[in-house]
């Protein structure tokens, strides 16, 4: 797997070098955002649904312990073996031990961001297990040895021509073939053979119903169902926050998920799994992996309401322009930038700063997570804990001093105007990241305060002698210093 060791600004800089890709990536995601808008507007009770979903999830987070035990008891009653994993290592060991006991060396997987978080594929492959991702987007990413760049659209950053080349190299499609329908048919044929010959499958979980001990997996390709119906051993991995209390709550979440994610009224397959068929084994692994720690952070616990619809990514101007891989984390975008520092604050200290804090993410979130507020909170925590970059800390200290009194503010303004007028290269140089993409404005000769004081003293009647900027009407100064 390609590893990404640079931080978000450096990786984003690489992504935007390809202007054409940046533009269509931006456009494609905005198109999905618009589809989401249209789909949500068709439901008059949309806001009520969001509200209900958010409240149900609040209830789940406040009573997680009880719901998990209820879910576990019902799973066991239904004949499903339950495992608990504190972290990725434990999760991966459990999967491997299940396969080893049955002497299974091949596994087919449907989309599961949790197993991406756990790096399960790498773990199993190192131990001689052949793993194939059966979700088409994830399959493409796996062939290209790259992680998913989006939780719903794993290869959204790739052109169809690039996918054609990957397929030509790995599954022998004709050279130059890039028609999406043809490529999909090739992949389907190839994967069908995989489904028919694998004895074990692993799926993710979208919703786990505590009162019945069943779980629901949503896909558009039916790949989870193919794997589950044809396998002798079915494994499901879920984060402990995926619980919902009752089956009647499913309708709320299923309506929100598809519309928010892709603008569809519902995902093509919403499959319920409740008990093994005759001769089949079913295992469910409940994974913590930092979730209880996040639950213990009052400012961030609401992030565990996330149903992984991807809407916050599709609307985020930073995500759309910088690409998902620039977040160097399994879950990218605004929600990833809240979840990742909980796992490793030092490694992910850059991510909460990859946002304009415009609030668009919070506006579209179907479970009403105040995403931009949490990003802002994380910035404060990261600075307080000493993980912010030195340049950022120095810059903020300088700004705090500047804004601490009228005297320092006026002095800093004077100094900045003098530098811009006399040695502009001190600010307009390649070391200044802002200057790389922007022209600095010409500096005004005086501040608004100076201009105002001068006009007040020169005449209390005639104020029409022009402002501090040539051609500026006197009542519309644009320098807000
Ligand atoms: S945070 Fe909200 S909008 Fe973003 S993926 Fe999760 S549920 Fe969807």
TrEMBL record:
TM spans (from-to): none
Start and end residues of each 4Fe-4S ferredoxin-type domain: 296-318
Transport among keywords: yes
Biased composition (Basic and acidic residues): 436-448
Region (Disordered): 434-481
Alphabetic keyword roster: 4Fe-4S, Electron transport, Iron, Iron-sulfur, Metal-binding, Repeat, Transport
Protein name: Lactate utilization protein B
The species this protein was found in: Nibrella saemangeumensis
């Amino acid at each position: 797997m390609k590893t990404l060791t640079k931080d978000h600004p450096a990786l984003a800089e690489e992504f935007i070098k390809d202007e054409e890709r940046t533009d269509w990536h931006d456009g494609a995601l905005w198109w999905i955002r618009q589809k989401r808008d249209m789909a949500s507007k068709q439901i008059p009770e949309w806001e009520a649904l969001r509200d209900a979903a958010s409240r149900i999830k609040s209830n789940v987070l406040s009573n997680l312990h009880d719901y998990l035990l209820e879910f576990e008891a019902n799973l066991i009653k239904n004949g499903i073996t339950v495992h608990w994993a504190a972290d990725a290592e434990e999760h991966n060991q459990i999967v491997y031990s299940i396969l080893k006991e049955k002497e299974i060396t091949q596994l087919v997987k449907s989309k599961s961001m949790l197993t991406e978080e756990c790096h399960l594929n790498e773990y199993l492959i190192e131990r001689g297990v052949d793993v194939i991702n059966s979700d088409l987007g994830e399959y493409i990413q796996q062939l290209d040895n790259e992680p998913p760049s989006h939780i719903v659209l794993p290869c959204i950053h790739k052109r169809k021509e690039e996918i054609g080349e990957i397929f030509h190299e790995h599954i022998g499609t004709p050279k130059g073939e890039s028609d999406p329908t043809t490529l999909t048919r090739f992949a389907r044929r190839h994967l069908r053979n995989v489904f028919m010959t694998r004895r074990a499958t692993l799926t993710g979980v979208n919703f786990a119903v505590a009162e019945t001990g069943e779980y629901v997996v949503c896909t558009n390709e039916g790949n989870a169902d193919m794997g589950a119906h044809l396998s002798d051993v079915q494994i499901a991995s879920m984060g402990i926050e995926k619980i919902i209390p009752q089956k009647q709550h499913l309708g709320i979440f299923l309506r929100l998920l598809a519309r928010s994610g892709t603008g569809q009224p519902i995902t093509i397959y919403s499959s319920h799994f409740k008990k093994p068929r005759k001769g089949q084994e079913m295992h469910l692994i409940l994974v913590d992996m930092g979730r209880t720690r996040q639950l213990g952070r009052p400012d961030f616990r609401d992030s565990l309401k996330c149903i992984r619809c991807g809407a916050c990514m599709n609307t985020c101007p930073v995500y759309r322009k910088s690409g998902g891989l620039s977040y160097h984390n399994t879950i990218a975008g605004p929600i990833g930038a809240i979840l990742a520092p909980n796992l490793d604050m030092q490694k992910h200290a850059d991510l909460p700063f990859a946002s304009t804090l415009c609030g668009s993410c919070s506006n579209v979130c179907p479970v009403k997570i105040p995403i931009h507020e949490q990003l802002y909170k994380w910035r404060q925590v990261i600075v307080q804990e000493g993980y912010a970059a030195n340049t950022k800390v120095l810059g903020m200290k300088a700004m705090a001093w500047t804004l601490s009194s009228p005297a320092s503010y006026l002095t800093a303004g004077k100094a900045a105007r003098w530098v811009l007028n006399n040695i502009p290269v001190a600010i307009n140089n390649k070391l200044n990241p802002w200057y790389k993409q922007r022209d600095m404005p010409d500096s005004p000769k005086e501040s608004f305060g100076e201009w105002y004081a001068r006009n007040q003293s020169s005449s209390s009647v005639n104020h029409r002698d022009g402002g501090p900027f040539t051609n500026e009407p006197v009542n519309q100064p644009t320098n807000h210093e």
